[in-house]
Design a protein that fits this description.
Elements lengths: L5 H11 L6 H12 L3 H17 E3 L6 E3 L5 H4 L4 E8 L2 H10 L4 E5 L17 H9 L5 E4 L5 H14 L5 E4 L15 H9 L5
Parallel strand pairs: 3-4, 3-5, 5-6
Antiparallel strand pairs: 1-2
Helix pairs in contact: 1-2
């Protein structure tokens, strides 16, 4: 990187901090931004700053919202208030909403329990979930964390915490994806697919 001016090096380093962006991708992004007209570059920078200033967490579900009020899902009176779907990140809400199959509320943890990354239960929005359940209107909590070791551990931890409240705790069924082939599925996926089978 010694061939680049310090300001360009700094820009590349900032892009490289983004998840999933390697050194070469960071360089491409930096060169792209430098090639933008001044007004487009300013609009890009302004959009980042505006989002940082105006986006906050919904006081109920912890999803992203604008300002200090409720998010659009929590404001929607047509949503089922007795069901909460627990997800790790706000982007998971978007993924589930795309399916158009779920009509309940959400709760965003903002991470999963991961001792290797020094993330414990106190680092997540678990207390807010328990507060919602103790109000007594919730009948089912759906665990929709990813089927990773950390996601499974988080789901198990939460299910143990919620059992004393008498709510039904369920887990999303995972299995063979549409268009997938059984021979390429791993053992855990096939086990989940068998466990999640339903009558036709």
């Amino acid at each position: 990187m010694e061939y680049f001016p310090p300001a360009l090096e700094s820009l590349v380093e900032q892009f490289a901090r983004l998840p999933g962006v390697g050194k070469k991708s960071a360089q491409r992004l930096a060169f792209f931004v430098l090639g933008l007209p001044d007004e487009d570059a300013q609009a890009f920078a302004d959009a980042i700053l505006a989002a940082k200033k105006s986006i906050s967490l919904c006081p109920v579900c912890q999803n992203f919202t604008e300002g200090e009020g409720l998010c659009p899902i929590c404001r929607n009176s047509r949503r089922d208030e007795t069901t909460i779907c627990v997800v790790a990140d706000p982007k998971d809400v978007n993924a589930l909403e795309r399916s158009r199959e779920y009509n309940g509320r959400y709760h965003v943890l903002h991470g999963v329990i991961s001792p290797m990354n020094h993330v414990g239960p106190d680092d997540l929005h678990i207390k807010e979930l328990l507060d919602r359940v103790t109000q007594g209107e919730i009948r089912e909590v759906i665990m929709a964390t990813n089927p990773t070791t950390e996601g499974e551990a988080t789901a198990m931890y939460l299910s143990r915490l919620l059992k004393p409240f008498g709510v039904k705790v369920t887990r999303l069924a995972y299995g063979v994806p549409v268009g997938g082939q059984l021979e390429f599925a791993d053992d855990a996926t096939l086990t989940r697919a068998l466990e999640g089978r339903r009558e036709m």
